[in-house]
Write a structure and sequence with these properties.
Radius of gyration: 18 Å
Order of helices and strands: EHEHHEHEHEEEEEEEHEEHHH
Strand content: 25-35%
Number of helices: 9
Distance between the termini: 42 Å
Number of strands: 13
CATH architecture: 3-Layer(aba) Sandwich
Strand order of the largest sheet: 2-1-3-4-13-12-11-8-9
Length: 274
């Protein structure tokens, strides 16, 4: 329950979650304590009903914080159709942290997130063979979360309003390949100063033998970006894993800015700008 009054002009936001452990109280405090957002939360798999076109219509922004099918199982056809209808409709989308890397068997999800994060072993990402991606910290080992500085790339962009000097954050960090940054529709927003070298990361693979053989070139430092998915503006970010990030006032500002921007006519015009 919110302790803050909500404005009638607040952005109607649907939060989709489950499939990955997280600190509920810290996460939902970001929304409950924000009078500029009216939020409704739905867990998977109930979200697959809520996201049908006839049910999702009242919401201006969808925030994905779920993590499903990381074993490579296929996306249900009816849910796939709902996601495709969602981006056709032009709804604003925000993807946080682990949500960017779910549904690895469906290339359409990668096209929406824009992320080059590769689950499991070596494989194809955007037509290129790349190594498995790595991580530092996160739900399994929050004590190893990285302390890094995020710097804005697009000065004056609405997602970066009030963050002109960037900010420090303690959070999970991913190492992923660089190629995605130059893809059509990708707009870099914030970069990290963290050394993106394999020695700083764990490989997300199961066996000790695979971990011993894991290799990765220097990774991308792009942590926050915008993407064009169908008619929908998307803001995707690797950031936002745990309580220290949730409580960070600058991260909260980033998230609030992203929720508002993707719901705006300005963002939809950007998508249509080619």
């Amino acid at each position: 329950m919110s302790h803050y009054s909500k404005s009638s002009e607040a952005i109607e936001t649907l939060i989709v979650h489950k499939g990955h452990n997280f600190n509920y109280s810290g996460f939902f405090a970001m929304f409950d304590e924000n009078p500029e957002v009216n939020s409704t939360a739905v867990e998977q798999p109930a979200a697959q009903v809520m996201l049908r076109p006839e049910n999702v219509q009242p919401y201006e922004t969808i925030v994905f914080y779920d993590m499903l099918a990381i074993d490579g199982s296929p996306i249900p056809e009816d849910y796939k159709a709902s996601i495709e209808a969602l981006i056709e409709s032009g709804k604003g989308i925000v993807m946080m942290n682990h949500a960017t890397l779910q549904w690895p068997a469906w290339e359409g999800w990668r096209e929406i997130s824009g992320s080059s994060f590769r689950l499991g072993g070596e494989g194809e990402v955007f037509g290129e063979i790349v190594p498995a991606s790595g991580y530092r910290g996160g739900g399994g080992e929050p004590e190893r979360n990285g302390h890094h500085h995020l710097s804005p790339v697009q000065q004056g962009h609405p997602v970066l309003e009030g963050l002109e000097d960037g900010f420090d954050i303690v959070d999970e960090i991913y190492i992923k390949t660089k190629g995605f940054e130059s893809r059509p529709g990708i707009l870099p927003l914030m970069r990290s100063d963290y050394p993106m070298v394999k020695e700083n990361f764990n490989a997300p693979v199961a066996s000790a033998e695979e971990r011993a053989k894991w290799d990765h070139p220097e990774g991308s430092d792009l942590i926050v970006w915008a993407n064009k998915a169908g008619n929908s503006p998307v803001v995707a970010m690797d950031a936002g894993d745990g309580p220290e990030a949730y409580a960070n006032p600058q991260f909260r500002r980033l998230l609030n800015n992203a929720i508002h921007w993707v719901a705006s006519d300005n963002a939809r015009a950007w998508v249509q700008s080619g």
